[in-house]
Amino acid sequence: MSSIVKPSARIPKTTPISVDYEISNNVLGLGINGKVVECFSKKTKEKYALKVLHDCVKARREVDLHWRASGCIHIVNIIDVYENTYSNKKCLLVVMECMEGGELFQRIQDKPDGAFTEREAARVMHEICIAVKFLHDTHIAHRDLKPENLLYSLSGPLGILKLTDFGFAKNTFNNATLQTPCYTPYYVAPEVLGPDRYDKSCDIWSLGVIMYILLCGFPPFYSNTGMPISPGMKKRIRTGQYNYPDPEWQNVSQDAKDLISGMLNIDADKRLTIDEVIKNNWIAQYTAVPQTPLHTHKMLKEGEEIWPEVQEEMTRSLASMRVDYDQVHIKALENSNNPLLNKRRKKISVTEN
């Protein structure tokens, strides 16, 4: 039995946030449940990120779970939380450390040509696994692991990779199962697509997808129709239909492929646990992984001008979801192309049913 005891809930401050912080109009990003803007401590002048949430049950859950997870070095730390009222609406104002080093993919894209290696991918995965193990040991399922939620604290070699955005996170105390179909299409586990209950192993599937992308620059499952998720894409996810095409995978180690296969097991009961993943030699002994140059940088660099469009498409996909406390519906979007994947689509013909 786990020795972890559920911590008592922290209490937000009720004093006006303006007493302690100056709030900028500079928008740093958009989370699932609210926007993130720049703010500065009036006392220290240090810069922070401020997430603005409409106060509701779901927002309270997000803040509580993120607060509980803030003790991990690879999870974005919450500094302060305020409960304030604006225009007669209650809001939760979450002050977090400001992640100035950018997103994981952007960091890889900015590296010199050929500089991203399999060993570096293993190190990145090791850092992400530390965050996921902390969450799972604390009985939290993140449910939205993806590169856009992995940010560096600083630019340069001293930056630390950290996980953020707990908008889909859920408590899993007492082996509680989950049913809400929360997901971002590329990274969704097969059991999340169906009506049945699932558990925190959905995070391991997402980890497998992230590792796959890190090693080649494109996802294992994607839609050929321009929709965020199509019937054919769902079918391939549910049946685990993906491959390791050359030349991108030609020189990647078999150990890496075997680990991905263990994480992308369509049977959640047979899928690797986070403890099994983090103890895998490819992760645990990442400094011994071959320094094989990867195609990841090249694939992302080829899509340098259109990558923002791909991110915008994913943002539109998320915006099309009606997020309730109990369920999420995906509305149909007009057809659009994902230019980043056109190269792969020309090589791989997959039947859409």
UniProtKB/TrEMBL annotation:
<feature type="binding site">
    <location>
        <position position="51"/>
    </location>
    <ligand>
        <name>ATP</name>
    </ligand>
</feature>
<comment type="similarity">
    <text>Belongs to the protein kinase superfamily. CAMK Ser/Thr protein kinase family.</text>
</comment>
<keyword id="KW-0808">Transferase</keyword>
<dbReference type="InterPro" id="IPR000719">
    <property type="entry name" value="Prot_kinase_dom"/>
</dbReference>
<keyword id="KW-0418">Kinase</keyword>
<dbReference type="GO" id="GO:0016301">
    <property type="term" value="F:kinase activity"/>
</dbReference>
<dbReference type="InterPro" id="IPR017441">
    <property type="entry name" value="Protein_kinase_ATP_BS"/>
</dbReference>
<dbReference type="InterPro" id="IPR011009">
    <property type="entry name" value="Kinase-like_dom_sf"/>
</dbReference>
<dbReference type="InterPro" id="IPR008271">
    <property type="entry name" value="Ser/Thr_kinase_AS"/>
</dbReference>
<feature type="domain" description="Protein kinase">
    <location>
        <begin position="22"/>
        <end position="283"/>
    </location>
</feature>
<dbReference type="InterPro" id="IPR027442">
    <property type="entry name" value="MAPKAPK_C"/>
</dbReference>
<protein>
    <recommendedName>
        <fullName>non-specific serine/threonine protein kinase</fullName>
        <ecNumber>2.7.11.1</ecNumber>
    </recommendedName>
</protein>
<keyword id="KW-0067">ATP-binding</keyword>
<keyword id="KW-0547">Nucleotide-binding</keyword>
<keyword id="KW-0597">Phosphoprotein</keyword>
<keyword id="KW-0723">Serine/threonine-protein kinase</keyword>
<dbReference type="Pfam" id="PF00069">
    <property type="entry name" value="Pkinase"/>
</dbReference>
